[in-house]
Amino acid sequence: MRRKIILDVDTGIDDSLALLYLLASAEAELLGIAATAGNVPAAQVAANTLALLDLAQAPPIEVALGASEPLAIPLRTTEDTHGPQGLGYAELPVTARELSARSAARMWVDLVRAHPGAVTGLCTGPLTNLALALRIEPELPVLLDRLVIMGGAFNHPGNTTPTNEWNIHVDPEAAKEVFDAFSAAPADRRPIVCALDITETIEMRPAHLVALAEAAGSTPLEHVAATDTPDWRSCASNPIIAYLTDAVRFYFDFHQHYDLGYLAHMHDPFAAAVTLDPGLARTRPATVDVELAGTITRATTVADWAGMWGREPNADIVIGTDPAVFFDRLVTRVGALARRLYPEQP
Ligand code: RIB
Ligand code: CA
């Protein structure tokens, strides 16, 4: 049976791989995509997402524009991480696809009401629009079948401040409203949280791009390296491989610049893989709350693993996975999609 999914993104390089992963997976039925401001402004997120649907020759899928600002603070974007348009060095043609007439929050509410107990939500960006949807429909946690969140850091340093992670950093008020809303959720409906503790073990490297190209039958095989200049662009014969090479190379350069190695943490496609197969992840229940008042700790996610606060768990935090299993699925699925859509001409 196909899994109905609402995807909420801030596309974003790794968001784009999450979208391609879902489009490459027969068991995923994408009901709608919410464009949330984060890596880049919401309108750019929407434009990137629509263009990626064209690249993937996807059927019509609703893309709904989210709020232009977080709930309580001005928007902060991160073009230095994801590139001026949000897709690294890649540039995609402008699409004829149009935005939905309804807002992202309204789309969330309408879709979960239309499919009670049957939809999985996957959030790979700030939680602004999910929080707005919860304000409209407080029953959303039980109307959803499951929620998967890429966000937070627990027993692990932050990637935006010493203690907080980007998606929470952008809109901590929204994150707190979301975790609080799930405080009464039954155990089998607690959000599965893919935090930096795990997603920073999902290290994509140039060899993975070569493997994707081989799986797609794309030529030539391109071995990108830190010595490549910013103006270099892929000549891959397969348009999806060319996109991935130009997008992910920017992410490699970013991680290299911050002494993390010539690699890229694939936060969002890992969360997408867990959405389709929760068995990929080992989880542990905890009560999660978000610091809002701290001067140096604001937007930090805190996990109470031992019930010290006397509150029921509201999250299943991923505490283990096998990155190699994930990458095997990513290469197999996205490589096959690329080969199927753009077969090599004899
Ligand atoms: O901290 C990593 C997360 O922030 C990822 O979802 C990335 O796309 C950015 O949104
Ligand atoms: Ca993201």
Automatic annotation (TrEMBL):
It holds the Pfam family IU_nuc_hydro. InterPro entries: Inosine/uridine_hydrolase_dom, IUNH, Ribo_hydro-like. Transmembrane segments: none annotated. SUPFAM superfamilies: Nucleoside hydrolase. GO terms for molecular function: hydrolase activity. Keywords: Glycosidase, Hydrolase. Residues 5-328 form the Inosine/uridine-preferring nucleoside hydrolase domain. PANTHER family: INOSINE-URIDINE PREFERRING NUCLEOSIDE HYDROLASE, URIDINE NUCLEOSIDASE. This is Nucleoside hydrolase.
